[in-house]
Amino acid sequence: MMFAIAALALLVTMGLALVRAYAGPTLYDRILAVNAFGTKTVLMIAVLGFLMGRPDFLDIALVYALINFIGTIAVLKFFRYGDLGRAGGLDEPEDEA
Amino acid sequence: MIAVLLDGLSWILLLGGAFFVLTGGVGLLRLPDVYSRMHASGITDTAGVGLYIAGLAIQGGFTLVTVKLLLILVFILFTSPTSTYALAHAAFTGGVKPIARDGSRAPLLDRRDGPSNR
Amino acid sequence: MKAGVRAFSLGVVLFATWILLSGHFTPLLLGLGVASCAGIVFLAMRMDVVDREGFPVQLSIRLIGYWVWLLVEIVKANIDVTRRIWSPRLPISPSVFHLRMSQPSELGQVVYANSITLTPGTVAIRLHQDEILVHAVAEELGEDLAGGAMDARVTRLEAGKS
């Protein structure tokens, strides 16, 4: 019961994040929404592990947290440079806010 | 007796976590621009994740399950600011301007010498 | 701290993590764990990241005190921003501003910037020399940050006079 409510709140929030990912308007809004979605997925897997009495789900949650982080960085880097192999340089923008 | 108390505590923690996670989701929709929405995402990543993990850890007890939960928490607390910073920096360099509530450009202030008294 | 000691303590921390994650204690699996930890330490030393920045053990104990302080700040900021989000009028006043950082090294600056971002309501956007560009969701949160309490804490954390 308790875990079901926790999982429901996560599902609702994941839906909200999906709405933001669909609505945009900028690319960065979408990446932010997907990143938030990923964080909730990690929690969701952990809660499901308890809900189903399978604590080994936590290992999957841990790995998913890793993938989510690397994925966000990789997408950002890809859109910045169009190449994942390039070493990130310190290029400063010219104009202020 | 103790078991009932712990169960109640974990109920409260999970409900609190659910509330903060929902807050993050609502903020993600309500706030006006990508920078403001990062704050909403920050609520989910700190309060939401923290309370959820705490609630689950009480259910787990003193086992390896709890250790793994705490590792997930620590990991998220370390990576979330890093990816948020990368996102903010990318958005800023990409030319996205921060906007205020009424849709105008948010002010750029100089607080290098302490708080400005406006 | 000598490089060898630092590398050894990295190996110990890695192996402790490995044991906690695996939960198996047969000689074969323990051996494999030791081997993989040694491999990681070797790779890290080859990449030259086992230094004051990559593995900052010099902060170890003071870091806990700082985390407790930061936790209180995060709780306060969470309540504040949550109230703003649920309030029907949406009482926010986003602003972007420059701050000066007093940390001497990049490690301290990164700790400061990450602390700013981790606290809801403020996000670090850009670091440039000793200045940092911050986005705050509300004026008051920005004013608080500009008061310099967090900046001073991080500087003391790094300098070792806590």
Task: Outline the structure in words.
- The complex is a heterotrimer of chains A (97), B (118) and C (162).
- With 97 residues, chain A is mainly alpha-helical.
- Chain A is built from 3 helices and no strands.
- The longest helix of chain A has 25 residues, at 27-51.
- Chain A starts with a helix and ends in a 16-residue tail after the last helix.
- Chain B has 118 residues and is an all-alpha fold.
- Chain B has one domain (2-93).
- Chain B is built from 3 helices and 1 strand; from the N terminus they run H-H-H-E.
- Chain B is elongated, with a radius of gyration of 19 Å.
- Chain C is mainly alpha-helical and 162 residues long.
- In chain C, helix 1 packs across helix 2.
- The longest helix of chain C has 27 residues, at 60-86.
- The chains are: A mainly alpha (97), B mainly alpha (118), C mainly alpha (162).
- Chains in contact: A-B, A-C, B-C.
- Chains A and B meet through helix 1, helix 2 and helix 3 of A and helix 1, helix 2 and helix 3 of B.
- Strand 1 (108-110) of chain B pairs parallel with strand 1 (95-100) of chain C, so a sheet runs across the interface.
Summary, kept brief:
Chain A has three helices and no strands. In chain A, helix 1 (2-23) runs antiparallel to helix 2 (27-51) and helix 2 (27-51) runs antiparallel to helix 3.
**Order of strands side by side in the largest beta sheet of chain C?**
1-3-2
Question: Total strand count of chain B, please?
Answer: 1
The main sheet of chain C comes to: 3 strands, antiparallel
Structural class of chain C: mainly alpha
Question: Could you give the topology of this structure?
Answer:
The complex is a heterotrimer of chains A (97), B (118) and C (162).
Chain A: H1 2-23, H2 27-51, H3 57-81
Chain B: H1 2-30, H2 34-60, H3 64-93, E1 108-110
Helix pairs in contact in B: 1-2, 2-3
Chain C: H1 3-22, H2 27-47, H3 60-86, E1 95-100, H4 106-118, E2 122-128, E3 131-136, H5 139-146, H6 149-159
Antiparallel strand pairs in C: 1-3, 2-3
